[in-house]
Structure formats: C-alpha cells, structure tokens
Write a structure and sequence with these properties.
The protein has two helices and two strands, in the order αββα. The chain is of the alpha+beta class. The radius of gyration is 15 Å and the shape is globular.
Length: 86
C-alpha cells in the first residue's frame, strides 16, 4: 500500500517524499464503509500514515482518486502547506 502511494507520487513528479507511520490507533467512532463488492465493513481502529512531499498540482487529483477508489483506505485528506512570512 505504502509503496503504491510512493510510486504514484514519484511518477507524478513528487520530490522529498517522507512517510511517517503513526501505527494502529483506535478511531474516535466506528466507521462503516462499503467495499467494491457491496459488503459493509465496520472499522474500529486504523493505521495512520502521514506523507509529506512536494509535487505538482495535477498529480494530486490522480492520487486522491486512487485513494478514494482503494478499499484499504477508510479516509484520506490532503492539503497544501504554505510558507510562513515573518
């Protein structure tokens, strides 16, 4: 899973990819999600991963669609971090 995401980032022009695995953490509430076959799964804990990288904006759309379509991913979020001006 992690290698697939790393390959997508590098293929899309990603640089300085850093992965921080926070491990298995219980969720604040249970999450129900249907997989591709239509079966409903209930998740009580999850593996939290943080990816930090520089990439082109076009590759973000491909990454988000891939994560959304993957049954192993419960939730994902991505955001842009800007430099602070002091």
């Amino acid at each position: 899973m992690v290698m697939m995401i790393l390959q997508l980032l590098v293929a899309g022009g990603g640089m300085y990819v850093e992965v921080f695995n926070r491990g298995v953490i219980p969720l604040a509430y249970s999450i129900k999600k249907k997989n591709k076959e239509g079966e409903c799964n209930t998740y009580l804990d999850g593996i939290y991963l943080l990816f930090t990288y520089f990439t082109k904006p076009k590759s973000m759309a491909v990454l988000e669609e891939t994560l959304k379509a993957d049954d192993d991913v419960i939730r994902s979020s991505s955001f842009k971090v800007r430099k602070r001006k002091y």
